[in-house]
Amino acid sequence: MLTESAALSGTRLLLGVSGGIAAYKSAELVRRARTAGAQVRVVMTAAAEHFVGAATFQALSGNPVRTGLWDPAAEAAMGHIELARWATQVLVAPASADFLARYAHGFGDDLLTTLLLATTASSAVAPAMNQQMWANPATIANVDTLRRRGIAIFGPAAGDQACGEVGMGRMLEPEEQVQALIGLQVGDRLAGRRVVVSAGPTFEDLDPVRFIGNRSSGRMGFAVAEQAALMGADVILVAGPTSLATPPRVHRVDVRSAEEMMRGVLDNLDGADIYVGAAAVADYRPVAPRPTKIKKQAEVIELKLIRNPDILATIAERRERPFLVGFAAETDNVLHYARGKLEAKRLDMIAANQVGQLGSGFDSTDNELTLLWPDGQLALPKASKQELARRLLEQVMLRLEGAER
Ligand code: C5P
User: Fold this and answer.
1) Beta strands 366-373 and 376-384, pairing class
2) Is 163 a catalytic residue?
3) What is the pLDDT of residues 190-224, one digit of tens each?
4) Ligand 1 pocket: which of 311, 318, 325, 349 to mutate (most atoms within 8 A of CB)
5) 4-186 in CATH: which number?
6) Which listed residue (162, 163, 166, 303) is catalytic?
C-alpha cells in the first residue's frame, strides 16, 4: 500500500487577518490549514482585534499571535523580518477594502503590510466586504494591481452578506481557501490536459411531471472538476440535474437523462486525457415516456423499463480512449464489487465507496474512498470531497504519466 502525506505538509502559512466580520471564519481556516498539514502563524491588524481575540488564534495555531510592530518581547522572539522569511505562503483573510488599498499601494505602516513588503513567499488574499465596496472602481483597480503583481485572489463569492445585502463580496469558506492554497502548491500538474467529468444523477422521465431519479448530489464529481481546474486542466463537466454552482474555470454542459449524458460526454471526448465517470447514471429508463400526465385510475400499474447504455463501457471500447476512472457506490462488499466493475468495464481506475451510512457518501460533504486499479489499491481516509478529489487526480496522474513513459 502507498502512504500519503497531508496536502499542506511543509507549508509554513503566515495568516494575516484584517478587520472585517468574516474574521471569525479565519479561526476555522487556521484549524483546517493545520489539519491539512500546514504550520500556521497569525498576524492581526489593529482593526481585526475588534472582531476576534488574539487568544482564539493563538490557541488554534499553537503559536503566539503578533498584533503590532512595536512589541519588544515579540520582536526579540521572532522579529518581523524573520517572520517574513519563515513563511512559505502568506494569506490575508479576510482582506478588507482598506487593507487591499494599502497593500496595493505598498504601505508599510503596520506589522502586516511591513511583512508583506519584506516577504518573498507566495502571497494570496481572500477579499471580504460589502458588495458596493467590492464593485467600487477604487477596489477594482487595487485588486487588479495586486493580481498583476502575481498575488493570488481567492474569491470572493456571491451570497448573503452580514450587512443584509446580497451580492459579490462574501469571503470564500475556510475549506475552499484551504483547497485554493493546495491549488497554489500543486500548481500546474494537469496543465495542458483535458479532463471530462460526469456528475450528479440522471432523471428518466415517466411523463411531463414525473421522473425516476436517485439521491446523488453531484458533489463528488463537482469536486473532481474543481480540483482538476485548480491543477491547470481544461475541464468539461457534464452535469445531471443538481443545484450546485459551477466551479471556477470549468466548462459545464447540463443534461437530464442518461442518454443525454452519454451524448454530452461523447461530444466532448475528442482529445480528452482523462474521463472521470462520477455520475450516478440510471441503469434503466421508461420504455415509452407518456406525452401527458399519467392519471390515477387503476389500483396497480406497471412500468416497463429498458436498460440505458453504459457510458464508461462504451468509451472503453474505443481504440483511442482516455484514462478511464469509474465510481462504485455500494452498500456491502464494496471492494469485491468495485474490482468486479473495474474488470467488467475495462477501467483504468475505480473509486469505491460505501453508501447508505450517515456522514459519508451521497449527500454529505465528506467521503471515504478506496482507489483500485488493475494491480493495486489505495485507501484514502475520510476527508472533504475536495481533498479526496485532489488525491484521486494525483493518483491518476501517477499512473497516466507512468503509462506514457
Ligand atoms: O455499474 P454501476 O452503475 O454501478 O457503475 C458505476 C460507474 O459506471 C460509475 O462510474 C458510473 O458513472 C458509470 N456508469 C456509466 N453508465 C451507466 C451506468 C454507470 O458510465 N449507464
Assistant:
1) antiparallel
2) yes
3) 999 999 999 999 999 999 999 999 999 999 999 99
4) 311
5) 3.40.50.1950
6) 163
